[in-house]
Amino acid sequence: MIRKDSLIGGFALSSFFIALVAIGQTPGPTETPMPTPMLVSTSTPTPSPSGTPSEVGTASVPSPSVSPSPSATPIGVRAAALGPSDIGVSERGAPVFTLEQAVVTALQQNPEVLRALEEIKRTKGVIIEIRAEALPHIGPNFMWEWRDPNLRENTTSISTFGGGGGPTPTPGGFGVGGIKNLRSDIIYNVQVTGRQLVFNYSTFRAIRGTFFQRDSAYFALRNVVDQTIATVKTQFYQVIVNRELIVVQEDSVNLLESQLKDQQNRFEAGTVPRFNVLQAQVQLYNQIPQLIAARNAYRISVLQLAKTLGLDFKPSPEVTAPLRVRGDLDYIPRKIDLASAIEEGKRNRPFLKQQRANVLNQIEQVHVAIGNWLPNVNTTGGGEWISSEFNSSFGDVKKGWLTTVTGSWDIWDSGSAWGKIKQQRALLSEQEILYDDDVRQVELEVQQAASNLKQSQETIIATEKNLETAAEALRLAKARLDAGAGTQLDVLNAQVQQTTAQSTYLQALFSYNSNLAEFDRVTGRQSTYTENFDGIAPHSTKTQTYYTGSDVDARGRPKRTTGFEAVTTTTKSQTSTSK
Protein backbone atom coordinates (compact mmCIF):
# COMPACT_ATOMS: atom_id res chain seq x y z
CA MET A 1 0.00 0.00 0.00
CA ILE A 2 2.85 2.33 0.82
CA ARG A 3 4.58 1.45 -2.50
CA LYS A 4 1.37 2.27 -4.37
CA ASP A 5 1.12 5.68 -2.70
CA SER A 6 4.78 6.40 -3.55
CA LEU A 7 4.22 5.64 -7.26
CA ILE A 8 1.17 7.90 -7.38
CA GLY A 9 3.11 10.77 -5.68
CA GLY A 10 6.06 10.39 -8.06
CA PHE A 11 3.80 10.44 -11.09
CA ALA A 12 2.12 13.63 -9.87
CA LEU A 13 5.45 15.29 -9.21
CA SER A 14 6.73 14.41 -12.70
CA SER A 15 3.61 15.85 -14.31
CA PHE A 16 4.14 19.11 -12.40
CA PHE A 17 7.73 19.50 -13.62
CA ILE A 18 6.74 18.76 -17.25
CA ALA A 19 4.03 21.45 -17.10
CA LEU A 20 6.50 23.92 -15.61
CA VAL A 21 9.02 23.28 -18.41
CA ALA A 22 6.29 23.71 -21.02
CA ILE A 23 5.33 27.12 -19.61
CA GLY A 24 8.97 28.33 -19.68
CA GLN A 25 9.44 27.54 -23.40
CA THR A 26 9.73 30.29 -26.07
CA PRO A 27 6.28 31.58 -27.06
CA GLY A 28 4.93 30.67 -30.45
CA PRO A 29 4.07 33.05 -33.23
CA THR A 30 0.61 33.64 -31.84
CA GLU A 31 1.88 34.53 -28.35
CA THR A 32 2.92 38.04 -27.26
CA PRO A 33 6.57 38.29 -26.11
CA MET A 34 7.37 39.92 -22.86
CA PRO A 35 8.99 43.34 -23.19
CA THR A 36 12.71 43.48 -22.47
CA PRO A 37 13.54 45.74 -19.54
CA MET A 38 15.75 48.77 -20.49
CA LEU A 39 17.40 51.58 -18.57
CA VAL A 40 15.82 55.03 -19.04
CA SER A 41 17.93 58.13 -18.35
CA THR A 42 16.53 60.63 -15.88
CA SER A 43 18.63 63.44 -17.28
CA THR A 44 17.38 66.06 -19.74
CA PRO A 45 17.95 64.96 -23.34
CA THR A 46 20.57 66.92 -25.27
CA PRO A 47 18.95 69.34 -27.74
CA SER A 48 19.32 68.03 -31.26
CA PRO A 49 20.60 70.61 -33.83
CA SER A 50 17.66 69.76 -36.05
CA GLY A 51 15.17 70.72 -33.34
CA THR A 52 13.58 67.26 -33.41
CA PRO A 53 13.81 64.63 -30.66
CA SER A 54 16.58 62.11 -31.12
CA GLU A 55 18.14 59.41 -29.02
CA VAL A 56 18.88 60.33 -25.46
CA GLY A 57 22.18 62.22 -25.27
CA THR A 58 22.96 61.79 -29.00
CA ALA A 59 23.78 64.82 -31.16
CA SER A 60 22.61 64.86 -34.77
CA VAL A 61 25.59 64.66 -37.15
CA PRO A 62 25.90 64.12 -40.89
CA SER A 63 26.66 60.59 -41.97
CA PRO A 64 29.44 59.90 -44.47
CA SER A 65 26.90 59.15 -47.18
CA VAL A 66 25.46 62.68 -46.91
CA SER A 67 27.15 65.68 -48.53
CA PRO A 68 29.46 67.29 -46.00
CA SER A 69 28.01 70.75 -46.67
CA PRO A 70 26.67 72.20 -43.41
CA SER A 71 23.72 73.62 -45.36
CA ALA A 72 22.54 70.01 -45.70
CA THR A 73 22.85 69.56 -41.94
CA PRO A 74 20.73 71.02 -39.15
CA ILE A 75 23.65 73.21 -38.10
CA GLY A 76 23.44 75.21 -41.31
CA VAL A 77 19.68 75.63 -40.96
CA ARG A 78 19.93 76.75 -37.35
CA ALA A 79 22.80 79.11 -38.14
CA ALA A 80 20.66 80.90 -40.71
CA ALA A 81 17.90 81.28 -38.12
CA LEU A 82 20.05 82.86 -35.39
CA GLY A 83 18.55 86.03 -33.95
CA PRO A 84 20.04 89.23 -32.48
CA SER A 85 20.27 87.65 -29.03
CA ASP A 86 22.36 84.80 -30.46
CA ILE A 87 24.88 86.88 -32.39
CA GLY A 88 24.84 90.06 -30.32
CA VAL A 89 23.90 92.41 -33.19
CA SER A 90 20.76 93.26 -35.12
CA GLU A 91 20.53 92.30 -38.80
CA ARG A 92 17.38 94.27 -39.52
CA GLY A 93 17.63 95.94 -42.93
CA ALA A 94 21.10 94.54 -43.64
CA PRO A 95 21.68 93.71 -47.33
CA VAL A 96 22.01 90.01 -48.11
CA PHE A 97 24.93 88.91 -50.29
CA THR A 98 25.56 85.65 -52.07
CA LEU A 99 29.12 84.80 -53.01
CA GLU A 100 28.58 85.96 -56.58
CA GLN A 101 27.08 89.27 -55.46
CA ALA A 102 29.88 89.83 -52.96
CA VAL A 103 32.57 89.33 -55.60
CA VAL A 104 30.86 91.63 -58.12
CA THR A 105 30.39 94.32 -55.46
CA ALA A 106 34.05 94.11 -54.46
CA LEU A 107 35.18 94.49 -58.07
CA GLN A 108 33.08 97.64 -58.32
CA GLN A 109 33.86 99.24 -54.97
CA ASN A 110 37.04 97.77 -53.50
CA PRO A 111 39.62 100.56 -53.05
CA GLU A 112 42.53 98.47 -54.32
CA VAL A 113 40.70 97.71 -57.56
CA LEU A 114 39.72 101.36 -58.00
CA ARG A 115 43.32 102.44 -57.44
CA ALA A 116 44.55 99.95 -60.04
CA LEU A 117 42.04 101.34 -62.54
CA GLU A 118 43.27 104.87 -61.90
CA GLU A 119 46.85 103.70 -62.37
CA ILE A 120 45.93 102.52 -65.87
CA LYS A 121 44.54 105.97 -66.61
CA ARG A 122 47.76 107.53 -65.33
CA THR A 123 49.93 105.39 -67.60
CA LYS A 124 47.76 106.36 -70.54
CA GLY A 125 48.46 109.97 -69.64
CA VAL A 126 52.20 109.19 -69.64
CA ILE A 127 51.87 107.75 -73.16
CA ILE A 128 50.19 110.92 -74.36
CA GLU A 129 52.81 113.12 -72.70
CA ILE A 130 55.86 111.29 -74.09
CA ARG A 131 54.32 110.82 -77.52
CA ALA A 132 53.63 114.55 -77.73
CA GLU A 133 57.38 115.20 -77.76
CA ALA A 134 57.62 113.61 -81.20
CA LEU A 135 54.56 115.39 -82.63
CA PRO A 136 54.30 118.99 -83.95
CA HIS A 137 53.84 121.84 -81.50
CA ILE A 138 52.07 124.83 -83.08
CA GLY A 139 51.27 128.09 -81.37
CA PRO A 140 51.33 131.90 -81.71
CA ASN A 141 53.69 134.38 -80.05
CA PHE A 142 52.55 137.98 -79.64
CA MET A 143 54.36 141.12 -78.52
CA TRP A 144 52.72 144.56 -78.17
CA GLU A 145 54.49 147.66 -76.80
CA TRP A 146 53.43 151.23 -76.25
CA ARG A 147 56.06 153.87 -75.34
CA ASP A 148 55.34 157.36 -74.01
CA PRO A 149 56.74 160.06 -76.37
CA ASN A 150 58.34 161.80 -73.36
CA LEU A 151 60.68 158.83 -73.08
CA ARG A 152 62.14 159.80 -76.46
CA GLU A 153 62.90 163.48 -75.59
CA ASN A 154 66.61 162.81 -75.51
CA THR A 155 66.57 161.10 -78.85
CA THR A 156 67.87 162.77 -81.94
CA SER A 157 65.31 164.61 -84.09
CA ILE A 158 65.92 165.87 -87.60
CA SER A 159 65.42 169.60 -88.40
CA THR A 160 65.67 171.14 -91.85
CA PHE A 161 66.38 174.56 -90.43
CA GLY A 162 69.76 175.50 -89.09
CA GLY A 163 72.95 177.20 -89.92
CA GLY A 164 74.99 174.14 -90.79
CA GLY A 165 72.61 172.75 -93.34
CA GLY A 166 72.87 169.30 -91.62
CA PRO A 167 70.90 167.41 -88.98
CA THR A 168 70.81 169.25 -85.72
CA PRO A 169 70.02 167.50 -82.45
CA THR A 170 67.12 169.17 -80.75
CA PRO A 171 65.34 168.19 -77.54
CA GLY A 172 61.80 166.93 -77.70
CA GLY A 173 59.89 165.94 -80.76
CA PHE A 174 60.17 169.38 -82.48
CA GLY A 175 63.02 171.31 -83.92
CA VAL A 176 63.42 175.05 -84.00
CA GLY A 177 60.37 175.87 -86.02
CA GLY A 178 60.74 172.17 -86.90
CA ILE A 179 58.40 169.28 -87.65
CA LYS A 180 56.81 166.62 -85.45
CA ASN A 181 58.58 163.24 -85.06
CA LEU A 182 56.71 160.70 -87.23
CA ARG A 183 57.71 157.52 -85.31
CA SER A 184 54.77 155.45 -83.99
CA ASP A 185 54.32 155.04 -80.24
CA ILE A 186 52.97 151.46 -80.68
CA ILE A 187 55.10 148.49 -81.72
CA TYR A 188 53.80 144.93 -82.09
CA ASN A 189 55.03 141.63 -83.45
CA VAL A 190 53.02 138.43 -84.17
CA GLN A 191 54.48 134.99 -84.87
CA VAL A 192 52.74 131.70 -85.63
CA THR A 193 55.33 128.91 -85.56
CA GLY A 194 55.42 125.15 -85.49
CA ARG A 195 58.13 123.03 -83.89
CA GLN A 196 58.79 119.47 -85.01
CA LEU A 197 61.24 116.88 -83.70
CA VAL A 198 63.11 115.46 -86.68
CA PHE A 199 65.32 112.91 -84.94
CA ASN A 200 65.84 111.93 -81.31
CA TYR A 201 66.50 108.26 -80.71
CA SER A 202 65.87 108.52 -76.97
CA THR A 203 62.41 109.99 -77.47
CA PHE A 204 61.32 107.30 -79.90
CA ARG A 205 62.42 104.48 -77.56
CA ALA A 206 60.88 106.23 -74.55
CA ILE A 207 57.55 106.21 -76.38
CA ARG A 208 57.82 102.44 -76.81
CA GLY A 209 58.60 102.11 -73.13
CA THR A 210 55.40 103.92 -72.14
CA PHE A 211 53.33 101.25 -73.87
CA PHE A 212 54.98 98.57 -71.75
CA GLN A 213 54.28 100.67 -68.66
CA ARG A 214 50.62 100.73 -69.65
CA ASP A 215 50.62 96.95 -70.09
CA SER A 216 52.29 96.55 -66.70
CA ALA A 217 49.54 98.64 -65.10
CA TYR A 218 46.88 96.51 -66.76
CA PHE A 219 48.41 93.26 -65.50
CA ALA A 220 48.77 94.83 -62.06
CA LEU A 221 45.03 95.41 -62.18
CA ARG A 222 44.42 91.78 -63.10
CA ASN A 223 46.64 90.69 -60.22
CA VAL A 224 44.73 92.93 -57.79
CA VAL A 225 41.44 91.54 -59.12
CA ASP A 226 42.57 87.95 -58.55
CA GLN A 227 43.76 88.80 -55.05
CA THR A 228 40.51 90.61 -54.26
CA ILE A 229 38.39 87.68 -55.45
CA ALA A 230 40.36 85.23 -53.30
CA THR A 231 40.09 87.57 -50.30
CA VAL A 232 36.33 87.97 -50.72
CA LYS A 233 35.83 84.22 -50.97
CA THR A 234 37.94 83.55 -47.89
CA GLN A 235 36.19 86.21 -45.83
CA PHE A 236 32.78 85.08 -47.10
CA TYR A 237 33.45 81.52 -46.00
CA GLN A 238 34.84 82.82 -42.70
CA VAL A 239 31.52 84.53 -41.96
CA ILE A 240 29.63 81.30 -42.69
CA VAL A 241 31.81 79.08 -40.53
CA ASN A 242 31.86 81.59 -37.65
CA ARG A 243 28.07 81.73 -37.67
CA GLU A 244 27.83 77.94 -37.57
CA LEU A 245 30.41 77.75 -34.79
CA ILE A 246 28.02 79.83 -32.71
CA VAL A 247 25.47 77.02 -33.06
CA VAL A 248 28.08 74.45 -32.00
CA GLN A 249 29.01 76.45 -28.92
CA GLU A 250 25.34 77.05 -28.04
CA ASP A 251 24.65 73.32 -28.26
CA SER A 252 27.57 72.63 -25.96
CA VAL A 253 26.39 75.24 -23.45
CA ASN A 254 22.83 73.89 -23.57
CA LEU A 255 24.02 70.35 -22.95
CA LEU A 256 26.18 71.44 -20.03
CA GLU A 257 23.25 73.36 -18.56
CA SER A 258 21.07 70.26 -18.78
CA GLN A 259 23.87 68.22 -17.24
CA LEU A 260 24.15 70.69 -14.38
CA LYS A 261 20.40 70.57 -13.80
CA ASP A 262 20.48 66.78 -13.79
CA GLN A 263 23.29 66.68 -11.23
CA GLN A 264 21.47 69.18 -9.04
CA ASN A 265 18.37 66.97 -9.10
CA ARG A 266 20.45 63.93 -8.22
CA PHE A 267 22.19 65.83 -5.43
CA GLU A 268 18.86 66.89 -3.96
CA ALA A 269 17.75 63.26 -4.13
CA GLY A 270 20.91 62.28 -2.27
CA THR A 271 22.29 59.97 -4.98
CA VAL A 272 25.41 61.99 -5.91
CA PRO A 273 27.83 64.13 -3.88
CA ARG A 274 28.00 67.92 -4.15
CA PHE A 275 31.32 67.55 -5.97
CA ASN A 276 29.43 66.44 -9.10
CA VAL A 277 27.37 69.64 -9.04
CA LEU A 278 30.46 71.80 -8.65
CA GLN A 279 32.23 69.96 -11.45
CA ALA A 280 29.27 70.52 -13.80
CA GLN A 281 29.19 74.22 -12.89
CA VAL A 282 32.90 74.66 -13.60
CA GLN A 283 32.57 72.94 -16.96
CA LEU A 284 29.59 75.13 -17.90
CA TYR A 285 31.29 78.37 -16.90
CA ASN A 286 34.40 77.36 -18.83
CA GLN A 287 32.30 76.83 -21.96
CA ILE A 288 30.39 80.13 -21.84
CA PRO A 289 33.46 82.31 -22.72
CA GLN A 290 33.96 80.19 -25.82
CA LEU A 291 30.42 80.99 -26.90
CA ILE A 292 31.07 84.69 -26.30
CA ALA A 293 34.29 84.48 -28.34
CA ALA A 294 32.45 82.72 -31.18
CA ARG A 295 29.87 85.52 -31.33
CA ASN A 296 32.57 88.17 -31.37
CA ALA A 297 34.51 86.34 -34.09
CA TYR A 298 31.38 86.32 -36.22
CA ARG A 299 30.80 90.07 -35.79
CA ILE A 300 34.42 90.89 -36.61
CA SER A 301 34.39 88.69 -39.74
CA VAL A 302 31.26 90.49 -40.98
CA LEU A 303 32.95 93.88 -40.52
CA GLN A 304 36.06 92.72 -42.37
CA LEU A 305 34.01 91.49 -45.31
CA ALA A 306 32.08 94.79 -45.39
CA LYS A 307 35.37 96.69 -45.56
CA THR A 308 36.61 94.55 -48.44
CA LEU A 309 33.34 95.14 -50.30
CA GLY A 310 33.69 98.89 -49.83
CA LEU A 311 30.51 99.28 -47.77
CA ASP A 312 30.21 102.46 -45.70
CA PHE A 313 29.19 102.57 -42.06
CA LYS A 314 25.57 103.63 -41.55
CA PRO A 315 24.79 105.11 -38.12
CA SER A 316 21.58 103.88 -36.49
CA PRO A 317 20.01 103.91 -33.00
CA GLU A 318 20.89 100.24 -32.51
CA VAL A 319 24.00 98.31 -33.40
CA THR A 320 23.31 96.70 -36.76
CA ALA A 321 25.31 94.40 -38.98
CA PRO A 322 26.47 95.93 -42.29
CA LEU A 323 25.49 92.82 -44.25
CA ARG A 324 24.31 89.22 -44.18
CA VAL A 325 25.61 86.35 -46.24
CA ARG A 326 23.75 83.47 -47.80
CA GLY A 327 25.80 80.50 -48.89
CA ASP A 328 27.17 77.06 -48.09
CA LEU A 329 30.49 75.48 -47.29
CA ASP A 330 30.40 72.88 -50.04
CA TYR A 331 32.88 70.07 -50.31
CA ILE A 332 33.49 69.21 -53.95
CA PRO A 333 36.69 67.15 -54.24
CA ARG A 334 39.02 68.27 -56.99
CA LYS A 335 41.69 66.10 -58.52
CA ILE A 336 44.92 68.03 -59.04
CA ASP A 337 47.70 67.33 -61.51
CA LEU A 338 50.56 69.24 -59.91
CA ALA A 339 52.74 69.51 -63.02
CA SER A 340 49.85 70.79 -65.13
CA ALA A 341 48.81 73.18 -62.38
CA ILE A 342 52.30 74.69 -62.17
CA GLU A 343 52.47 75.19 -65.93
CA GLU A 344 48.97 76.67 -65.90
CA GLY A 345 50.03 79.09 -63.18
CA LYS A 346 53.08 80.21 -65.19
CA ARG A 347 51.02 80.85 -68.30
CA ASN A 348 48.04 82.54 -66.65
CA ARG A 349 49.35 84.52 -63.70
CA PRO A 350 49.11 88.30 -64.31
CA PHE A 351 51.88 88.52 -61.72
CA LEU A 352 54.40 87.10 -64.23
CA LYS A 353 53.02 89.02 -67.19
CA GLN A 354 53.41 92.25 -65.25
CA GLN A 355 57.06 91.44 -64.62
CA ARG A 356 57.54 90.60 -68.31
CA ALA A 357 56.22 94.08 -69.15
CA ASN A 358 58.69 95.58 -66.68
CA VAL A 359 61.55 93.70 -68.36
CA LEU A 360 60.52 94.91 -71.82
CA ASN A 361 60.18 98.47 -70.54
CA GLN A 362 63.65 98.32 -69.05
CA ILE A 363 65.03 97.18 -72.40
CA GLU A 364 63.64 100.39 -73.88
CA GLN A 365 65.25 102.41 -71.09
CA VAL A 366 68.62 100.97 -72.11
CA HIS A 367 68.00 102.26 -75.64
CA VAL A 368 66.96 105.63 -74.22
CA ALA A 369 70.37 105.83 -72.60
CA ILE A 370 72.05 104.79 -75.88
CA GLY A 371 70.31 107.76 -77.52
CA ASN A 372 72.71 110.10 -75.66
CA TRP A 373 75.38 109.03 -78.16
CA LEU A 374 73.28 110.07 -81.16
CA PRO A 375 72.45 113.53 -82.57
CA ASN A 376 69.23 115.49 -81.97
CA VAL A 377 67.62 117.42 -84.83
CA ASN A 378 64.71 119.88 -84.55
CA THR A 379 63.07 122.25 -87.00
CA THR A 380 60.92 125.33 -86.53
CA GLY A 381 58.88 127.16 -89.16
CA GLY A 382 56.03 129.62 -89.48
CA GLY A 383 54.99 133.17 -90.33
CA GLU A 384 55.75 136.56 -88.74
CA TRP A 385 53.92 139.91 -88.81
CA ILE A 386 55.85 143.08 -87.70
CA SER A 387 54.26 146.51 -87.29
CA SER A 388 55.45 149.51 -89.31
CA GLU A 389 57.91 151.91 -87.65
CA PHE A 390 55.85 154.97 -88.50
CA ASN A 391 52.32 153.58 -88.53
CA SER A 392 50.50 151.19 -86.16
CA SER A 393 47.84 150.27 -88.69
CA PHE A 394 47.46 146.55 -89.41
CA GLY A 395 47.40 147.35 -93.09
CA ASP A 396 51.01 148.52 -93.07
CA VAL A 397 52.58 145.50 -91.32
CA LYS A 398 55.56 143.61 -92.64
CA LYS A 399 55.00 139.88 -93.06
CA GLY A 400 56.98 136.87 -94.16
CA TRP A 401 58.02 133.27 -93.52
CA LEU A 402 60.79 131.90 -91.36
CA THR A 403 62.39 128.46 -90.97
CA THR A 404 64.96 127.25 -88.49
CA VAL A 405 66.74 123.90 -88.28
CA THR A 406 68.79 123.15 -85.18
CA GLY A 407 70.90 120.14 -84.32
CA SER A 408 73.22 119.03 -81.54
CA TRP A 409 75.55 116.11 -81.01
CA ASP A 410 77.77 115.49 -78.02
CA ILE A 411 80.87 114.09 -79.66
CA TRP A 412 82.71 113.92 -76.34
CA ASP A 413 80.84 113.92 -73.02
CA SER A 414 83.57 112.50 -70.77
CA GLY A 415 81.72 109.22 -70.32
CA SER A 416 78.33 110.63 -69.21
CA ALA A 417 76.36 108.62 -71.78
CA TRP A 418 78.31 105.44 -71.09
CA GLY A 419 77.61 105.77 -67.36
CA LYS A 420 73.86 106.04 -68.04
CA ILE A 421 73.99 102.99 -70.29
CA LYS A 422 75.76 100.91 -67.64
CA GLN A 423 73.14 101.91 -65.07
CA GLN A 424 70.22 100.92 -67.28
CA ARG A 425 71.84 97.62 -68.24
CA ALA A 426 72.32 96.78 -64.56
CA LEU A 427 68.65 97.61 -63.93
CA LEU A 428 67.71 95.35 -66.83
CA SER A 429 69.68 92.48 -65.31
CA GLU A 430 67.91 93.10 -62.00
CA GLN A 431 64.51 92.91 -63.69
CA GLU A 432 65.43 89.65 -65.43
CA ILE A 433 66.66 88.16 -62.14
CA LEU A 434 63.43 89.29 -60.50
CA TYR A 435 61.41 87.63 -63.27
CA ASP A 436 63.21 84.31 -62.74
CA ASP A 437 62.60 84.58 -59.01
CA ASP A 438 58.91 85.32 -59.66
CA VAL A 439 58.70 82.15 -61.73
CA ARG A 440 60.00 80.18 -58.79
CA GLN A 441 57.57 82.06 -56.55
CA VAL A 442 54.68 80.92 -58.73
CA GLU A 443 55.94 77.34 -58.56
CA LEU A 444 56.15 77.60 -54.77
CA GLU A 445 52.67 79.12 -54.38
CA VAL A 446 51.05 76.47 -56.57
CA GLN A 447 52.75 73.65 -54.67
CA GLN A 448 51.82 75.17 -51.32
CA ALA A 449 48.19 75.66 -52.37
CA ALA A 450 47.98 72.09 -53.66
CA SER A 451 49.49 70.73 -50.45
CA ASN A 452 47.12 72.78 -48.28
CA LEU A 453 44.20 71.60 -50.38
CA LYS A 454 45.24 67.99 -49.91
CA GLN A 455 45.56 68.52 -46.17
CA SER A 456 42.04 70.01 -46.04
CA GLN A 457 40.59 67.07 -47.98
CA GLU A 458 42.22 64.54 -45.66
CA THR A 459 41.09 66.49 -42.59
CA ILE A 460 37.50 66.54 -43.82
CA ILE A 461 37.49 62.79 -44.35
CA ALA A 462 39.05 62.16 -40.94
CA THR A 463 36.83 64.55 -38.99
CA GLU A 464 33.70 63.40 -40.82
CA LYS A 465 34.24 59.89 -39.44
CA ASN A 466 35.13 61.30 -36.03
CA LEU A 467 31.77 63.10 -35.77
CA GLU A 468 29.89 59.82 -35.50
CA THR A 469 32.47 58.38 -33.13
CA ALA A 470 32.27 61.39 -30.79
CA ALA A 471 28.46 61.33 -30.81
CA GLU A 472 28.38 57.61 -30.01
CA ALA A 473 30.96 58.07 -27.25
CA LEU A 474 28.80 60.77 -25.67
CA ARG A 475 25.72 58.58 -25.86
CA LEU A 476 27.50 55.65 -24.21
CA ALA A 477 28.99 57.87 -21.52
CA LYS A 478 25.54 59.16 -20.57
CA ALA A 479 24.04 55.67 -20.63
CA ARG A 480 26.80 54.38 -18.35
CA LEU A 481 26.22 57.27 -15.97
CA ASP A 482 22.50 56.60 -15.87
CA ALA A 483 23.18 52.91 -15.19
CA GLY A 484 25.60 53.75 -12.41
CA ALA A 485 28.58 52.22 -14.21
CA GLY A 486 30.15 55.50 -15.36
CA THR A 487 31.15 58.84 -13.91
CA GLN A 488 30.14 62.38 -14.59
CA LEU A 489 33.69 63.16 -15.69
CA ASP A 490 33.31 60.67 -18.55
CA VAL A 491 30.21 62.53 -19.78
CA LEU A 492 31.87 65.93 -19.58
CA ASN A 493 34.96 64.70 -21.41
CA ALA A 494 32.80 63.12 -24.10
CA GLN A 495 30.90 66.40 -24.54
CA VAL A 496 34.15 68.33 -24.93
CA GLN A 497 35.36 65.84 -27.51
CA GLN A 498 32.13 66.13 -29.47
CA THR A 499 32.29 69.94 -29.49
CA THR A 500 35.91 69.74 -30.62
CA ALA A 501 34.99 67.30 -33.40
CA GLN A 502 32.19 69.51 -34.69
CA SER A 503 34.38 72.62 -34.58
CA THR A 504 37.25 70.83 -36.30
CA TYR A 505 34.93 69.58 -39.03
CA LEU A 506 33.56 73.04 -39.74
CA GLN A 507 37.08 74.51 -39.73
CA ALA A 508 38.18 71.80 -42.15
CA LEU A 509 35.36 72.74 -44.52
CA PHE A 510 36.35 76.39 -44.26
CA SER A 511 40.02 75.58 -44.86
CA TYR A 512 39.16 73.52 -47.93
CA ASN A 513 37.07 76.26 -49.52
CA SER A 514 39.55 79.03 -48.69
CA ASN A 515 42.47 76.92 -49.94
CA LEU A 516 40.51 76.18 -53.09
CA ALA A 517 40.07 79.93 -53.65
CA GLU A 518 43.80 80.41 -53.14
CA PHE A 519 44.59 77.56 -55.54
CA ASP A 520 42.42 79.20 -58.20
CA ARG A 521 44.28 82.46 -57.64
CA VAL A 522 47.81 81.06 -57.89
CA THR A 523 46.91 79.12 -61.04
CA GLY A 524 45.17 82.11 -62.65
CA ARG A 525 41.75 80.47 -62.89
CA GLN A 526 39.70 83.57 -61.99
CA SER A 527 38.73 84.15 -65.63
CA THR A 528 35.02 84.18 -64.76
CA TYR A 529 35.45 87.59 -63.14
CA THR A 530 38.59 89.04 -64.73
CA GLU A 531 36.96 88.92 -68.14
CA ASN A 532 34.85 91.84 -66.94
CA PHE A 533 37.93 94.01 -67.56
CA ASP A 534 38.64 92.82 -71.08
CA GLY A 535 37.20 96.06 -72.46
CA ILE A 536 40.15 98.06 -71.12
CA ALA A 537 42.78 95.48 -72.05
CA PRO A 538 45.37 96.76 -74.55
CA HIS A 539 45.62 94.69 -77.70
CA SER A 540 49.26 93.87 -77.02
CA THR A 541 48.34 92.08 -73.79
CA LYS A 542 46.61 89.38 -75.81
CA THR A 543 49.59 88.63 -78.07
CA GLN A 544 52.49 86.21 -77.74
CA THR A 545 54.54 89.04 -76.28
CA TYR A 546 53.22 88.09 -72.88
CA TYR A 547 53.43 84.34 -73.17
CA THR A 548 55.12 83.25 -69.93
CA GLY A 549 55.35 79.48 -70.24
CA SER A 550 58.25 77.39 -69.00
CA ASP A 551 59.88 77.30 -72.43
CA VAL A 552 60.70 81.05 -72.62
CA ASP A 553 62.98 83.35 -70.63
CA ALA A 554 62.39 86.75 -69.06
CA ARG A 555 62.38 88.50 -72.46
CA GLY A 556 60.07 85.95 -74.06
CA ARG A 557 62.83 84.27 -76.07
CA PRO A 558 63.02 80.46 -76.32
CA LYS A 559 65.23 79.04 -73.61
CA ARG A 560 68.55 77.53 -74.57
CA THR A 561 70.71 75.07 -72.67
CA THR A 562 74.02 76.78 -72.06
CA GLY A 563 77.32 75.03 -72.54
CA PHE A 564 78.07 75.25 -68.84
CA GLU A 565 74.83 73.48 -67.95
CA ALA A 566 75.51 70.79 -70.55
CA VAL A 567 79.00 70.15 -69.18
CA THR A 568 77.69 70.04 -65.61
CA THR A 569 74.98 67.56 -66.54
CA THR A 570 77.47 65.35 -68.37
CA THR A 571 79.87 65.45 -65.46
CA LYS A 572 77.18 64.46 -62.98
CA SER A 573 76.08 61.64 -65.25
CA GLN A 574 79.60 60.31 -65.56
CA THR A 575 80.16 60.56 -61.82
CA SER A 576 76.99 58.70 -61.01
CA THR A 577 77.87 56.03 -63.56
CA SER A 578 81.33 55.52 -62.09
CA LYS A 579 79.80 55.08 -58.67
List the helices and strands and how they pair.
Blueprint: H1 2-23, H2 74-80, H3 84-87, E1 96-97, H4 99-109, H5 111-132, E2 137-146, E3 186-199, H6 201-269, H7 274-309, E4 324-325, H8 338-348, H9 350-370, E5 376-386, E6 398-408, H10 416-483, H11 488-522, H12 527-530, H13 563-578
Parallel strand pairs: 1-4
Antiparallel strand pairs: 2-3, 3-5, 5-6
Helix pairs in contact: 2-6, 4-6, 5-6, 6-7, 6-9, 6-11, 8-10, 9-10, 10-11
Nearest-angstrom radius of gyration?
Answer: 46 Å
Strand order of the largest sheet: 2-3-5-6
Overall mean confidence score, pLDDT? 79
Task: Tell me the helix content.
Answer: 55-70%
Note the quaternary state here: single chain
| Structural class by sheet pairing and helices | alpha+beta
Low-confidence stretches: 1-73, 154-168, 170-180, 563-579
Largest sheet: 4 strands, antiparallel
The gross shape turns out to be: elongated
Strand content: 5-15%
Number of helices: 13
Spatial gap, N to C terminus: 113 Å
H and E string: HHHEHHEEHHEHHEEHHHH
Annotation, overall tally of beta strands = 6
